[in-house]
C-alpha cells in the first residue's frame, strides 16, 4: 500500500509529466486536475501571488508558454515529506525552452534558455493547495545579455549541476533511518547558524561550527549574484561570511508571519540522503551592513529562500539554494528590473555594456 507521501509525489510527478507533453491549448484541464480550484500560488518577484487556477493559468502559464512554446521541465531533485501536520512535495531543476517572445520584460533571444527553479507544494486531499516557486530570473537576464549585479564572488555562468550521484529524483519509498539521519544533520546546521552573534567582533563565524556538518569538498550552488562555491573554504569566504555580516541579526522565525516550509523543530523534510526546507516572505534579519556593494538600509527584511541538501555519510556534500534576489534587493531600494531596462535603453542608442 502506498504511503500518503508516495501518493502525493505521484500526483505532482504526473502533473509535471502531463505539462511536459500536453498541447499548450489544453493545459487548463491538466492544471485543474492537479490543483485545488482556490490554490494559493506564489512565485518570484514580479510574479508574486496568484490566487486560484484561473489566475494561475492566465497570469503565469499562458504568458510563459507564449514566450517559450516548447518549454519542458527537467527535475534534478524530487522528494516529499511531512513537517508537523503538513505534507509537502518539493523539486529542483530546470525549465528549458526556446525564448521566442519577451517574458516579464526580458528581451527574447530566439535561443534555448534555461530557467532554474526550486518549488514546494503543500498537498491537501490529494491535490496541490499551495505552491511556492523561485526562478533564477537574473540568470535568464544574463542569458539575454544583461548583468544587473556586480560580478559574484562565487562561480557564475553555465547550468547548476544536478546531484553528482544522479539519484535525486526519489520516486520510490526511502529508508526511514537514512531520512532521519539527514534530517538530524540539517537540524544541527540550522541550530549552528542561529548561534551567530553579529555584535561579536571576533570568532562569531567559527561559533557556528559549520565545519562539523559539511564535507571539506562540499559544493554550494547559490543564485546569480552570489554564485557557486566548490569547497567549504570557498563557502565560508564567498557566501557565509559576507551574508552573515550583512544579514546576521535574525529574529525568531514565526510561522504566523510569512511561510515556513520544513522547519518544524525535530521534523524536517527529509527522504533518504536528501532534505529540503524554505521560508517565504518571512522576517529574517536587519540589514545592518553593506551587501554586494549596496549600502545597509537598517530595515528588517523578509526572505524567500529555499534549500535542498544531499548527505554523503555523516556530512552534507551538496547544497542548492534558490533565493529571490530581485525581491531582496527591492526591499533594499534597488530595482533590478529597472537596471535591466536602463541597459536595454542604452543598447538601443548604441551604448553596449
Short description:
The protein is of the alpha+beta class.
What are the defining features of this structure?
353 residues; alpha+beta; Nuclear Transport Factor 2, Chain: A; 2 domains; six-stranded mixed β-sheet; 9 helices; 32% strand
Strand content: 25-35%
Which structural class best describes the helix and strand composition? alpha+beta
What's the level 1 CATH class of the largest domain? Answer: Alpha Beta
> Which whole number gives the mean pLDDT?
93
Total helix count? Answer: 9
The shape, in one word, is: globular
The residue fraction in helices comes out at: 25-40%
Which CATH-level-2 architecture of the largest domain? Roll
Written account of the structure:
30% of the residues lie in helices and 32% in strands. It is an alpha+beta fold. Strands 7, 8, 9, 10, 11, 12, 13 and 14 form an 8-stranded mixed beta sheet that branches. A hairpin with a 2-residue loop joins strand 3 (72-83) and strand 4.
Give the secondary structure arrangement, pairings included.
Layout: H1 4-21, H2 27-34, E1 35-43, E2 48-51, H3 53-67, E3 72-83, E4 86-98, E5 112-124, E6 127-135, H4 137-143, H5 176-193, H6 204-207, E7 214-221, E8 228-229, H7 232-247, E9 259-261, E10 263-264, E11 267-271, E12 274-286, E13 300-312, E14 315-320, H8 325-331, H9 336-348
Parallel strand pairs: 1-6, 7-14
Antiparallel strand pairs: 1-2, 3-4, 4-5, 5-6, 7-8, 9-12, 10-11, 11-12, 12-13, 13-14
Amino acid at each position: 500500500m502506498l504511503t500518503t507521501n508516495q501518493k502525493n509525489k505521484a500526483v505532482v510527478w504526473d502533473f509535471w509529466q502531463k505539462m511536459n507533453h500536453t498541447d499548450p491549448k489544453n493545459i487548463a484541464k491538466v492544471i485543474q486536475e492537479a490543483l485545488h480550484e482556490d490554490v494559493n500560488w506564489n512565485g518570484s518577484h514580479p510574479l508574486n501571488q496568484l490566487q486560484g487556477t484561473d489566475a494561475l493559468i492566465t497570469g503565469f502559464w499562458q504568458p510563459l508558454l507564449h514566450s517559450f512554446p516548447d518549454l519542458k521541465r527537467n527535475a534534478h531533485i524530487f522528494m516529499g515529506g511531512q513537517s508537523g501536520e503538513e505534507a509537502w512535495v518539493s523539486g529542483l531543476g530546470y525549465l528549458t525552452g526556446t525564448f521566442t517572445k519577451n517574458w516579464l520584460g526580458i528581451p527574447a533571444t530566439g535561443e534555448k534558455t534555461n530557467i532554474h527553479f526550486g518549488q514546494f507544494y503543500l498537498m491537501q486531499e490529494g491535490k496541490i493547495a499551495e505552491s511556492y516557486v523561485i526562478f533564477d530570473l537574473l540568470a535568464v537576464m544574463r542569458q539575454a545579455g544583461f548583468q544587473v549585479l556586480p560580478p559574484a564572488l562565487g562561480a557564475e555562468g553555465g547550468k547548476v549541476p544536478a546531484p553528482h550521484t544522479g539519484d535525486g529524483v526519489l520516486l520510490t519509498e526511502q529508508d526511514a533511518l537514512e531520512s532521519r539521519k539527514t534530517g538530524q544533520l540539517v537540524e544541527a546546521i540550522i541550530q549552528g547558524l542561529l548561534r551567530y552573534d553579529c555584535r561579536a567582533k571576533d570568532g562569531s563565524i567559527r561559533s557556528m561550527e559549520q565545519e562539523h556538518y559539511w564535507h571539506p569538498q562540499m559544493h554550494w550552488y547559490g543564485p546569480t549574484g552570489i554564485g557557486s562555491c566548490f569547497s567549504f573554504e570557498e563557502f565560508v569566504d564567498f557566501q557565509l561570511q559576507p551574508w552573515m555580516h550583512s544579514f546576521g541579526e535574525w529574529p525568531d522565525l514565526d510561522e504566523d508571519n510569512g511561510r515556513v516550509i520544513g522547519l518544524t523543530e525535530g521534523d524536517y523534510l527529509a527522504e533518504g540522503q536528501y532534505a529540503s526546507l524554505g521560508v517565504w516572505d518571512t522576517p529574517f534579519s536587519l540589514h545592518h551592513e553593506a551587501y554586494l556593494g549596496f549600502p545597509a538600509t537598517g530595515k528588517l527584511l523578509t526572505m524567500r529562500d529555499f534549500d535542498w541538501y544531499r548527505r554523503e555519510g555523516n556530512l552534507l556534500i551538496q547544497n542548492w539554494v534558490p533565493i529571490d534576489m530581485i525581491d531582496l534587493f527591492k526591499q533594499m531600494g534597488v530595482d533590478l528590473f529597472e537596471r535591466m531596462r536602463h541597459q536595454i535603453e542604452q543598447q538601443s542608442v548604441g551604448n553596449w555594456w
